[in-house]
## 1
Amino acid sequence: MSALEGSVEFAENPEPRVPCVLLLDTSFSMAGAPIASLNAGLATFRSNLLEDPVATKRVEVAIVTFNSTAEVLQDFVTVDNFEAPVISQLGGATCMCAGVEKGLSLLQQRKALYRQNGIAYYQPWLFVITDGQPTEPAGTIRATSARVKDEETKKKLAFFAIGVEGANMELLRSFSLRPPAKMAGLNFTSLFVWLSASMQRLSASKAGEKTNLPPVDWGTVG
């Protein structure tokens, strides 16, 4: 998005923003039932948020997919302009670090636009879902996890790692100050119901104040 487009958008909707980046594993191991369940979950996420008039104007969603490469599937849009994608293109490897780095770059650019246009914003969320582990070199994994933890320590973002069946939970644990969560089966719909409810609570709160999130009923944390 250009600076001019951003100025027009923010002039039309000056509400504070709740930015959320979904980092989605689209490696070959997600083929079949997992990717179908993920697509259904994304549709639920959109429809639930559209029921909340405040969240519709404040929550901004971006989607980054990662397999052998990392790509921006959806740049930031408010929920009223968000169309849940149907993901079908899968790749071989799991370049999760590349996905995280791309998500962090998207956030930096978006926050710069907020500041340029005088738009308040809430602590951003990076929400990664994977059924494997990063296939990048150990040094890359260490560097990316260190960057995430530094951002968390400085309260610049909240990082959530969600492991689908088969995910390396121990490695996911190294990425964040917050413990990862393991999904029960392919419970993507419940996961995205929880995420949409969390976004609604955040968007209705005052920026910077502590918000109690809904209980996790789609898996186990830790």
## 2
Amino acid sequence: MKTKIHFIVNPIAGNGINKVTYNFLKQTFNEVLFELTIKTSQHKKHSIVLTKESINQGASIIVACGGDGTINEIASCLINTEIILGIIPTGSGNGLASNLSISKNVLKALSTIKKGKHIEIDVGEINKEYFFSNMGVGFDAFVISDFEKNSNRKLWSYLKSIIRVIRKYDYSNNYEITFNSQSETINPFLFFVSNSNEMGYKMSLTPKASLQDGVLDVIIVPKLSFFKMTLFTLLLLIKKHYWLKEVRMFTSESITIQQNFQGSFQLQKDGEYLELDKNLLTIRLLKKSLKVFVD
């Protein structure tokens, strides 16, 4: 019986050049052994519809061809199933793929899938929304919101979004967080929860995080002076930002965060902006709940 392998492609990811065609795939996957299906997403969240369709069609492997947003949509449908996720990273950040050491070279990424080795990784959950790399409340959420308004999704555009947001960021909003049987009120510059040790562009706020360690890594950064913010940025580049005494880091299997002001909850998950009509987020870890191909 042939192995049914479905490829779901985001045609505008990265530079918009789609190499995943039927003729291209036949170079790697023998048609005697594999039944190949290619689907193309047309808009945001369309990959969810296509993935559910592929599940009903009996696919045993579903390959996400795109960036972290596309991967999130597809992987969210595969949690606690026997279907294995393949990744061909064609986005700009590619945080999850980089953490898993999956090559941006399409042929090498296909080779990883064909070898058949897979692992089970942890998955983060926020009020029934899933994340595989990270989520954040505060500064990074507003940066992502600004970044998504750009047609050019490159590193320079991301840096310009950072500069625009940092000039007008509002530190007055406060939140109550509960973790590891303790509670406190914070009004952070950054509240960042990570499942992996990379957030894209080879940058990391949580260098010790692991996709298989059974805990979430949390970093809280308060309002900093201009000097301390500059120092934090420089230390971040060498992944030593935790040297700054104001930076707090801890691990937990679950966290709740309640906002003490009116309005929807604004956050980012896996580099995508999200608003939830809630004032309380429950963040928890689903241990070893997703199968994914690795080298």
